[in-house]
Specification:
With about 180 residues, the protein is mainly beta. It contains one helix and eight strands; from the N terminus they run αββββββββ. It is elongated. Keywords: Signal.
């Protein structure tokens, strides 16, 4: 299985990278930005995780961007199944096109089903992520962002998330 999955993930990553980097030319006075991230994961007990988070932004100044980001994730394993949707505003401040500071408010809608106990629930949770990271140019006006965010509203015993700390990797076109 590993022999099949590792080349598949490498091919998938390369195709996403090439779609973002190819054909990007400076837009002149265009202030709109587009991007997002994708995630895939595997774990024990046949766990599988798939996530996508598209974003649309607007350059308020050359160094300040605001916009809307969405999130869709699907998780399944031998013991549970979960679907989560999120949406909310974000702001990024860019430092020399090499680093960024960001804030992102997300409202999540979670549908969870436990397969063993035949238990289902629909919940909502608000998250306020603050953090930053590094940006790497991958085209004329395209960047890969690698960062770390922390949900300042996270509480250990009342959150559906296991941690408040979130590493992220994403792509932005239009900066």
């Amino acid at each position: 299985m590993k022999k099949f999955m590792i080349p598949l993930m490498l091919f998938f990553s390369a195709s996403v990278f090439s779609q973002v980097a190819v054909g990007t030319t400076p837009q002149g006075n265009n202030k709109w930005t587009f991007g997002g991230g994708i995630g895939i994961g595997f774990g024990s007990n046949s766990a599988f995780y798939l996530q996508a988070s598209p974003r649309v932004g607007y350059k308020i100044t050359d160094d300040l961007e605001g916009g809307v980001v969405g999130s869709v994730s699907w998780q399944t394993s031998n013991s549970f199944k979960s679907t989560m949707f999120g949406v909310g505003p974000f702001m990024n401040y860019y430092i020399g096109r090499s680093f960024y500071l960001g804030a992102n408010l997300q409202q999540y809608f979670i549908n969870y089903k436990d397969k063993y106990y035949d238990y289902s629930t629909n919940e909502q949770e608000t998250a306020l992520y603050l953090g930053g990271g590094y940006m790497q140019r991958i085209g004329n006006n395209s960047f890969m962002q690698i960062g770390l965010m922390y949900n300042v509203l996270w509480k250990e015993n009342s959150s559906v998330f296991s941690s408040g700390l979130i590493p992220n990797i994403g792509f932005v076109v239009g900066l």
